[in-house]
């Protein structure tokens, strides 16, 4: 259970700053079916996070506790760099004619593999509870996708996410450096 809450919190903070939520808002407006889009986005996040959990479970036996801590530190540092970056979606999937379920499912699935949340899930999964880490991250991702889809693109874009990106990026960077220094036994 100890991986559930950190995975939930990291995923929630990250998802508010990442592109999959914006894509869910865009597609909910386009199709006019926010619940369908939110469900599809949530399933895409479940697939990505459980794949990351499986990966963490497979590599965990080969890692020392310091290596696990260093992996988490790197995930936090890369997460910091990702959250400070642009929150704009480059492709609005305008040419995709797969409907209100498959378009968000595949679009968010592809987009989510390149985001920070699966890296956090992978790092937390090496601690011994991969399914709890995947479940916590998936619940948070679904919650954020649901809120984004219900609010729609215009309202979602009106929220001042820039400050959350900056503050979470600074927090992730500090935590990542702190854990990394401790993992390398430099303290």
From TrEMBL:
InterPro entries: GDT1-like (IPR001727)
Source organism per UniProt: Sphingomonas kyeonggiensis
Superkingdom of origin organism: Bacteria
Compartmental location: Membrane
Keyword match Transmembrane helix: yes
GO cellular component, one term: membrane
Record has Thylakoid as a keyword: no
Keyword list, A-Z: Membrane, Transmembrane, Transmembrane helix
Protein's membrane topology: Multi-pass membrane protein
GO molecular function, one term: metal ion transmembrane transporter activity
Protein family membership: Belongs to the GDT1 family.
Main location: membrane
Protein name: GDT1 family protein
Transmembrane annotation, as ranges: 34-58, 70-89, 101-124, 131-151, 163-181
């Amino acid at each position: 259970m100890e991986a559930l809450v950190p995975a939930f919190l990291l995923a929630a903070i990250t998802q508010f700053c990442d592109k999959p939520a914006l894509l869910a808002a865009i597609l909910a407006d386009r199709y006019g079916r926010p619940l369908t889009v939110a469900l599809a986005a949530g399933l895409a996040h479940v697939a990505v996070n459980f794949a990351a959990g499986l990966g963490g479970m497979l590599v965990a036996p080969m890692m020392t506790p310091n290596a696990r801590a260093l992996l988490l530190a790197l995930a936090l540092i890369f997460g910091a760099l990702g959250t400070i970056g642009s929150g704009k979606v480059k492709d609005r999937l305008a040419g995709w004619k797969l409907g209100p379920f498959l378009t968000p499912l595949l679009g968010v699935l592809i987009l989510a593999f390149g985001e920070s949340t699966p890296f956090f899930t992978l790092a937390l999964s090496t601690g011994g509870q991969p399914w709890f880490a995947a479940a916590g991250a998936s619940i948070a991702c679904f919650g954020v996708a649901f809120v984004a889809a219900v609010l729609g693109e215009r309202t979602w874009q009106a929220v001042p996410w820039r400050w959350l990106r900056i503050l979470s990026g600074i927090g992730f960077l500090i935590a990542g450096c702190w854990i990394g220094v401790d993992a390398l036994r430099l303290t």
